[in-house]
Each structure stands twice: as C-alpha cells, then as structure tokens.
Amino acid sequence: MASKITKFVLLVVAVCCLLGAILLEVFPANTFYNKLLGQPELKGFQAPFVLNNYVMKNDLGEDVSWQSFKNKPLYITTGFTICSSTCPISMAFYKRLREEIGDSAYLSLFSIDPHNDTPSRLASYLKTFDSNIIGLQVINDIDFRRILAELKQTVTDLPDSTDIMHSDYIYLLHPKLKGVVIYTEQDLASILYDYQLLSEL
Fold first, then answer.
1. How do residues 188-199 score in pLDDT, each as one tens digit?
2. Distance between CA 143 and CA 69 in Å, rounded?
3. How far apart are CA 110 and CA 76, in angstroms?
C-alpha cells in the first residue's frame, strides 16, 4: 500500500514539473513575474531589489554613485582591464548598443579588479572601445563585496592566472523603474525592445 502511495505521489510531482516547464515555455518567468507585480512586461528579468548608493570613482577620478546617473538609463556590466575573454566581447556589445541608442543612456563597466584598475587605467582601456563608456571602481573592500552581492555576481580568481572568472550579465537601472533589470544574455534585440518600451512609458 505504501509503495502505491509513493508511486502516486511521484507521478503527481512529475506531472506538476512537466506542467511547470510547459508554462514557463509559454510564459517566460520574467514576463510572468513582471505582470504579477504590475510591472512592464520586459524581456529582461526585473528584480525587485534596489542597489545601495555606494561612493565610487569614475574613470576621471571623480566621486560618483548610482544616483549620479539617475537622469538617464544606466547599463552596467562587470569586468577588468586585463581580461582577455568575456570583457572585450562585452565592450564590443556595448559598441553595438551605442550605435542603436546613441547618448540617451549611460554605459558603464564596473571593475572587479579595483586595486589594479585605477581610474586612469580604466580610461585608457575603455577609450579603445568607446570613450563615453564610464569606468567605475570601488577600493573599499567591504563596499566592493556588497556591490557584487547586490548584483548577484560571483567572482573567482583562477589559480596560476591573472584571469578572474565572472559573469557577463548586463544590468539596467532605469529612472522609470524601481529595482534592477538583469539580462543574463547579451541579446541586443531584447535590450532594445525593453529600451523602446520604457521610453514610451
């Protein structure tokens, strides 16, 4: 009898998982959650958390914070200047994004190697891609770790290497939204769709 009940329970769980997978295929999680929360149905995942307003240095050596960019959308990605893999790809993606949206939004690179990526080094690195990309650096280790945690960003130093493993997510802070929009893939069509949708609000 117990065996039959166990089999029945497993069958119910399997059916629920299958239905859940079908629903997520028809109604992507980000769209479903945004609609549930009364938010615009964006392609990116709209996370409800708000980034704390830490003091950072930009690539000009000036003190800035997230609030310094509140007048326009701010796109953020993470990386470092001696990165040889994902970072140049992200910067090339930024260049394509810039061609589409012009100066109507800020594009920024938050350094995950702040002790080596000085403001001047960030400026020198970024100008090879787009001199208007903003480099951001936080020297305070506690604030640095807190920002990475808020961005849900995992950073790992690779042994016997100068490389640092990290994700290539794109984050969006938008004046018309609370919280952060996260793009786990550098999909230009999705980002432009959301950009246009939010511009029309």
1. 999 999 999 999
2. 19
3. 7
